[in-house]
Amino acid sequence: MSITRIIKCSNCGVFNTNKEYCKNCNTLISDAKKRELKASQVKQKQIDEVIYELENPSLAERLKKHPSFLYKILGWILYSAILVVTTIGAGLAWFIAMVAAG
Ligand SMILES: [Zn+2]
Question: What is the Å distance from ligand 1's center to 68 Cα?
């Protein structure tokens, strides 16, 4: 089974046969590969955003320093919750990385 795919490089115009990268200038020319890379980039961006939000404890830190006792407790509860969610998030990121790699 052999399918010959000839792709013209959009960068230098050289025709490549069955290649994902241009043999002349090394530009990525495979559409399937481009879509694949794009998808993984989007996925990574979403993971980064979630991790950033989870690791940003400004609200919890502010509450913990609040003069009111009730707010302090609320801050600690929030802080613990963020800690737990961050741990789960890191595990999830690791799992996604493993699935992507495998
Ligand atoms: Zn090229």
Answer: 65
Q: 55-64 long-range CB contacts below 8 Å, 24 or more apart?
A: 55/86, 57/82
Distance 39 CA to ligand 1 centre (A): 23
Give 87-99 pLDDT, tens digit per residue.
998 898 888 888 8
59-88 pLDDT, tens per residue? 777 777 788 888 888 888 888 888 898 899
- Cα-to-centroid distance, 85 and ligand 1 (Å): 46
Rounded distance from Cα 15 to ligand 1 centre (Å): 8
